[in-house]
Write a structure and sequence with these properties.
alpha/beta; five-stranded mixed β-sheet; 4 helices; 26% helix; elongated; disordered C terminus
Length: 160
């Protein structure tokens, strides 16, 4: 407990009077510990499926707070977020999600090795299920104009 001496010496009881102030040092310690916990936990809360996304030079758009990701893995298996789902259950699982509505965007991610026909099949399943708002996800690429200047005459290497 903190004490202080009153101006003019002691009070009537010849004792120190108590100072009624909040000690903020433990509070700051707790806040710093919480900050460290959130800094460590934030990267772990992202979706982490091992897929090799293609790159795109399109201008990236702002994503919503809680996006719904549908992922096509290299083995053609589907997942919503990180939860695996069968193709026949894709729309039913989306319908059963509490925070999902038909007017929200679905972010479709497909591995680079997924054939175009398989991607179109999943798009058709989503469209037939009443989910017409779909955005394709890709890695941010460097525009070709920035990689090869007109003065060098260099060309971008073909994809391989």
């Amino acid at each position: 407990m903190a004490t202080s001496i009153i101006e003019g010496g002691f009070d009537d009881d010849e004792e120190f009077s108590e100072a009624h102030e909040i000690n903020v040092t433990p509070f700051i310690d707790v806040i710093l510990v919480l900050l460290i916990i959130f800094m460590v936990a934030a990267p772990l809360s992202t979706v982490d499926l091992p897929i090799n996304l293609p790159s795109s030079t399109a201008t990236p758009e702002k994503k919503p707070d809680k996006p719904t990701y549908v992922t096509i893995k290299p083995d053609l298996a589907l997942a919503i977020g990180e939860d695996p789902v069968k193709r026949v259950d894709l729309v039913r699982t989306l319908d059963g999600m509490t925070d999902m509505s038909k007017d929200r965007f679905i972010f479709l991610r497909a591995d680079r090795a997924v054939p175009y026909g398989e991607l179109m099949d999943v798009l058709e399943i989503l469209r037939a299920g009443g989910y017409p708002k779909i955005k394709l996800v890709a890695l941010e690429g460097v525009p070709a104009a920035a990689t090869s200047g007109p003065e060098t005459g260099a060309q971008k290497p073909p994809n391989g």
